[in-house]
Amino acid sequence: MPPEASVHEIAPRSGTAFTLDKGERLTVIDPQGEQVADLLAFVRGDLDEVISSGRTLDYASRIYLTTGDPIYSNRSNVLLRIVADTVGRHDFLLTPCSADTFRIIYGDAHPHRGCFGNLAAALAPYGVAPDRIPVAFNVFMNVTVDGGTGELKVEPPLSQAGDHVTFEAECDLVIGLTACSALQSNNGSFKPIRYRIDPART
Ligand SMILES: [Zn+2]
Description:
Elements: E1 7-10, E2 15-20, E3 25-30, E4 37-43, H1 53-60, E5 70-72, E6 78-85, H2 99-104, H3 114-123, E7 137-139, E8 142-145, E9 152-155, E10 163-169, E11 173-178, E12 193-198
Antiparallel strand pairs: 1-12, 2-11, 3-10, 3-12, 4-7, 4-11, 5-6, 6-10, 8-9
The structure holds zinc ion.
């Protein structure tokens, strides 16, 4: 089923970038289920300020974020707030998959550029250099942690077709968003991601 006119689609194993104004809402949709989307947000007027996994998880005292949780920057400002979430399981620990991920973890001789390469390409026109890309907020990614040993496991996403998460911008942002390229993260197949931007509420 094609997306509605106001809904954009990111093809499997690709990514995009766009601006999101203060107050606008970004809804990330998993149209088929079990597909991860890596999300980045930079402050539009100062690209040195970007979402921070370390600060956000520190202040939340949890690794699983959901409705009501803020996503903080490296300067401890709230850049995004999760205002709706039909899944409740996302990851903010692991870096975007990359050619190095596929070389090191999967042993690929000719690796795909992954979310990292897709984000770097999409964000380049906005002035974001690859080395500025931090840990992404990995929408729908299901990473479990053994509380005793700390062992991480990448499990199939809990998202089903039509599940979605909505973020509200707390300032003017540049957003990077992907349909993740890693087999393990997406239960073995590559699917599209959709997103929609809704105007600020008056
Ligand atoms: Zn990825």
